Amino acid sequence: MTEDKLKVFTGNTNIKLAKDICKYLNIKLGKAQVLEFSDGEIRVKIKENVRGQDVFVIQPTSAPVNKSLMELLIIIDALKRASADRITAVIPYYGYARQDRKDQPRVPITAKLVANLITNAGTDRVLTVDLHAGQIQGFFDIPLDNLYAVKLFVDYFKKKKLKNLVVVSPDVGGIKMARAYSKKMKAGLSIVDKRRKNDSESEVMNILGDVKDKNVVIIDDIVATAGSLVEAAAAVKKAGARRVMAAVTHPVLCGPAITRINESCVEKLVVTDTIPIPSEKKINKIKIHSMAPLLGEAIRRIHSGRSVSALFK
Length: 313
Prior knowledge:
By secondary structure, the protein is of the alpha/beta class. The protein has 8 helices and 14 strands. The strands form 3 sheets. It has a 7-stranded mixed sheet with strand order 10-9-8-11-12-13-14, with helices on both faces. Strands 1-4-5-6-7 form a 5-stranded parallel sheet, with helices on both faces. Strands 2-3 form a two-stranded antiparallel ribbon. A hairpin with a 5-residue loop joins strand 2 and strand 3.
């Protein structure tokens, strides 16, 4: 496919990221109307020719989650019916990812349901960032590329030139991600062993690894209410950590998250722009790094048929 066959569209969830990606690609954002009828139903109209085009739709399924998801599905359907040659759903943040298995009786596997919806809408390929659970890739019967924010964060902390650095996973489930970071940062590794009380509260039981007199970076993929992050930070600080920072890919930041972060011992929370942060939630402790260059390069490589895995190196 030639460069003139490449088109990028977006819903309303993260327009700035879509524009930044287009700036990287040196193309204009595709023209589309994504509005609502008076009863709340979503109305989409593609306002340019996409017949035979290689189309990418930028839309994280973040808050408002259900609206964002429906916008994505309806845009894809509109593009399919307008005879786009190939449609790639670029989902920087994949919502419903935390419901990826049956952990109790009579509950859904919503991550699989959403994968089915996206596929059946007419998507040919999916591009996403730091999936909450790796097995979600297997929920799709179409190609999926899962990019990682690790290089952004590693570069940021390397510039800090911190000594006695330890990477901390806030729970046992994040060990694999934390180990990857510790290897790239040539740092120690520690794990916070906790017991979850409910969806928003957990209790720290043990800290596995040495954090005394160390500079700590807590690594995670999602910060929602910030309960786990703040508890992990308090635990490592109590265990003798010198400085506590955090790097989290997706800033969901709902409920009491901002208040908790502000009042915590976390000096700096580094996040990406996979999810837009409203101005009222932009506090001094939060540093935002853009995923636009990485996503833009992945789009360019997918469009031209080159390797995307080279971006993982």
